[in-house]
């Protein structure tokens, strides 16, 4: 399979052109690529390096450093569950462990039907209404097992 | 009829959007104004109804309460919001407008004192601006507590063709949400503060490095910058002064260590968020090697009120060398969680028991972690410690960004210490050995202690000393705070495990 099969090369060039003149363009560029294609396709590496005059090693270093960037697409929805201290103080760990074992997944796993990927997150700033979770960009506070079930059902898991 | 409902993400997380929809359906003619949150998170969604010019609150509103709220018969009525004990006891300087105004209305902002500080600053020389900040005694609210005026002076004195203002909005510490609240509830105050900083040090360009975990804050800040630019607050001619300042919102990518200023600068430049050795200071060689002010959101958002009311006015609040107000974030297992802005000097116990009302679970408090994941676990015996930079230092802790996370008596402190090491291992940038390797060894050593290996405890102490002394930044350097404070104050949790194993 050609590397360019999972993205539109012309669209990639448009995105690159829109970001190239920024000071420190790489992170905004990678975010834009991921927003468009759902991940950073391997085939996009060479055009990015060419445009920004960086090596493939440098690019790989950046992509792999940050938790946000994906080298493969996630499920249709991403459920992030906070693992940080404030959520732990009100049972967040037990809640997350319960969910993962019920789904038979580990962190970063995706449900077999491809609907939901479960990701850990370290703080959503909802520490006074913990435990907290986020489905795509929608925040949810005071989450309990029943609420998680509802969120998963809504996401089609 | 005017109704106010917060659009702060904590209110949204507790169902504010459903409440708004129910209110719209029940009263299509009412004007519903979205605001930030007042900070009483336990009451969210907090609906406020304007009755004869006074805003009356209805706490923990649910969609089915809409009709009763509108006809004034709701049992959830709290009376005038400004008269509530939580509000009356505060000194709101940085957060004066948060929860009050429509965050994206520049008119609302100006009619509540906004842009006054910037107008004052435009009539001052750069040196006078820096001096006013020094007079205020403002210290970096991100955690380090470095005097803001001194940092600005260094950048002011540096000569370079381009200087920058970088706002550190990578609020990754658990138990903290003040940055998020101000960005979602009063974004123009941050913009104004950055513009004043630009005038003071001679920088014409600013960046807000905002964490990707805050999509609502990113949306509000991005829109606010567009509005400010369209209104001439930002751009080549700030408020028709002929002076230039503009700024961009940049999204982080989920790396906790990027809250460290040098790693943030690398990330902003498009590199791995690896910590830089200091010197050179970012004030001299920061973003793209240029002199750069890197300040926390709260520090910069406090600048406008300092210029509006005077540095002296701000400095009149506080305790010892901690001047002005501290924005306490009360979080975790607590009955009344939220944000409380007050003068430095309030005791830890008063915050947890009096303001916070003890634990949410109703069980005794066991520990309070102050200052985020790198802060010490304070036992109840230290509850008389006053909130101040030096006072907390003497008590073996740090106030950091002033987040307090409360834990009840069921908490396993060995587990919390292990989590601190695990978190450090996950988030270490990898540049220095004590942090990169030390955190992994820390997890292993704590597992040995949990299995009853008595010889492992001195090893942990030794490891923590190495991490404290040898790490490049606060991630590796401060992870021993939660670990060793747990060991010191809760020895039973580390010994009990041993007995269980035997």
Quick summary:
Chain A is α+β, with helices and mostly antiparallel strands and 157 residues long. Helices cover 43% and strands 11% of the residues of chain A.
Alpha-beta content class of chain A: alpha+beta
Low-confidence stretches of chain B: none
CATH topology of the largest domain in chain B: the name is Rossmann fold
Strand order of the largest sheet of chain B: 2-1-3-4-5
Regions with little confidence, pLDDT below 50 for 5+ residues of chain A = none
Q: Percentage of helical residues of chain A?
A: 40-55%
Overall, the morphology of chain B is globular
CATH C-level class of the largest domain in chain A: Alpha Beta
Largest sheet of chain A: 4 strands, mixed
Task: Indicate the structural class of chain B.
Answer: alpha/beta
Mean pLDDT of chain B: 96
Helix content of chain B: 40-55%
How many independent structural domains of chain B?
A: 4
**CATH architecture field of the largest domain in chain A:** 3-Layer(aba) Sandwich
The oligomeric state of the chains shown is: heterodimer
Going across the major beta sheet of chain A, what is the strand order?
2-1-3-4
Question: What would you note in describing this structure?
Answer:
The complex is a heterodimer of chains A (157) and B (502). Chain A folds into two domains: 3-65; 77-154, Glutaredoxin, CATH 3.40.30.10. Helices cover 43% and strands 11% of the residues of chain A. Chain A has seven helices and four strands. Chain A has helices spanning 9-19, 26-37, 45-52, 56-65, 85-88, 92-103, 145-154, and strands at 77-82, 116-121, 133-135, 138-140. Chain A has a four-stranded mixed β-sheet, covered by helices on one side. In chain A, a hairpin with a 2-residue loop joins strand 3 and strand 4 (138-140). Chain B is an alpha/beta fold and 502 residues long. Chain B folds into four domains: 2-88, 3-Layer(aba) Sandwich (Glutaredoxin); 106-315, Rossmann fold, CATH 3.40.50; 318-408, Ubiquitin-like (UB roll) (Roll), CATH 3.10.20; 413-501, de novo design (two linked rop proteins), CATH 1.20.1440. Chain B has helices at residues 9-13, 16-26, 66-71, 85-88, 106-111, 116-122, 126-136, 148-157, 178-185, 187-201, 215-230, 261-268, 297-309, 311-315, 348-355, 389-394, 413-427, 433-450, 456-470, 474-478, 480-489, 491-501; strands at residues 2-6, 31-35, 47-51, 54-58, 77-80, 164-169, 205-210, 246-251, 292-296, 318-319, 322-323, 325-332, 338-343, 365-370, 377-379, 403-408. In chain B, strands 2-1-3-4-5 form a five-stranded mixed β-sheet. In chain B, helix 9 crosses helix 10, helix 17 (413-427) runs antiparallel to helix 18 (433-450) and helix 18 runs antiparallel to helix 19 (456-470). The termini of chain B are far apart. The model of chain B has no long low-confidence stretch (mean pLDDT 96).
